[in-house]
Amino acid sequence: MIHGAGAVALNLLFILFFSLFLVAIVAAIISSVGNLNLGRYSLPSRRRVLWFAALTPWIIGIVTACLSIFVDSRYQPADGFNLFHWHHSQEFNLASWHGITLLVGISIVSFLLLKAVFRLITNARQLKLLYQLAEENERGFYQLEAEKITAFTAGIIKPRCYITNGLLQQLSAQELTIVQLHESAHAKSFDPLKKWLFQLLTSFYPVSVSRQMNICMTLVMEQSADARVARVVKDKSLIAETLLKVKKLASASTGNNVLAPVACHYAMDNVEERINYLINRQKETIFPLLPVVLAITTLAAFCGFSADAFHHVIEFTLSH
Amino acid sequence: MNLGELEKLLLKYFWTVEVADAKQVHAHFEKSRGGSLNTIQSTLDRLFKKGLLKRKKAGHAFQYRAASEKKTFIGQLIKEVTRDFTMGDQESLLAAFVSLSSELDNEQIDKLEKLIQGYRANHPMEEQR
Lengths: 320, 129
What we know:
The complex is a heterodimer of chains A (320) and B (129).
Chain A: E1 2-3, H1 5-33, H2 43-71, E2 91-92, H3 97-133, E3 135-136, E4 142-144, E5 151-154, E6 160-164, H4 165-168, H5 173-188, H6 191-202, H7 207-232, H8 236-253, H9 270-279, H10 289-318
Parallel strand pairs in A: 4-6
Antiparallel strand pairs in A: 1-2, 3-4, 5-6
Chain B: H1 5-14, E1 20-21, H2 22-33, H3 37-49, E2 53-58, E3 61-66, H4 70-87, E4 95-96, H5 106-122, H6 124-128
Antiparallel strand pairs in B: 1-3, 2-3
């Protein structure tokens, strides 16, 4: 049995994991019931909402843990304020279901963290070699001698824009400018780093939810880069045309070509959404943050109330 | 994998010649960058161990050649780097100009082309800029 500050810390962690688990279940239920269409909201609004959603489990976990532990202790802010409760914050038994749950929680979080860091290191190693073999051209692109049709921005600390000779040879000067502006926009906003952070944060959600969130975030990043191109190149149809051309070339080079209409794909291609957004942009609205804040507060309160109740149910069942 | 400056130079050299031994490589680089034959030999050995060069014994010396052509090697490297985004954008650490994870069907392409043409017809001024 652990007593004192150590026990408080372990109890905090236990409630944090419990809340993370609860939020993940709620998110899975919500995503299976309804499909939130973010497309009609402005880009900054969508970006804010997605980051907020990615951070929500942690915010709720920390708030719930602090409320449950400190409200029921000598740190209690007011006498009689007893809505949130954790009845043995000063003791923690490692050889109990608390200990096992904590161990499982720590293992999952460590696994996801290590996995993300491992991917980051592997990616950095591969990129280093690619960078060494690339030649920087007068446009600031890192040119790669390969037939593959691709242009991308990669690198966490120092993002660089890469383009293959295969693509370069197929583009006119104007089209190349569009590709360059688009990739530079990614590099300037450190999108690879943001993608990694976002993937890490959303990895604590169920796979179906995290996948959907990452698809939305990728689309937001791509549309933001397109929007930055549109500030320089006023002809949006040219941007759209370049997108479509590169997409067709890339499909042809991978040997897949365009799919037959009967082919199944899990989502609409983001090139289609990007072209629609560029050309058919409707009046955008700001995402109403108040319902989101209210939902998160309610969820945090629910987690706070249920933490101890859940604890009693388990201990009653296990005759602890 | 990390390549030193000399390793990079030697690898690029082997992409331009078919085979060469350490002495030939040393003779090629002697004027431009100097360095001893020993340095060249150990660098060639490192490149061989990294799998970037192949070698076979010819008399007392090794004959080296590139393990793969430049385009093939870089193409393979790009494939590895971009593998995560061809598996699905949500797993990617890159920001690609166009996604490789999903395809457009002919109907979608036609629709988008018509959309672009329609937009251009309604916004003739933009085309002139």
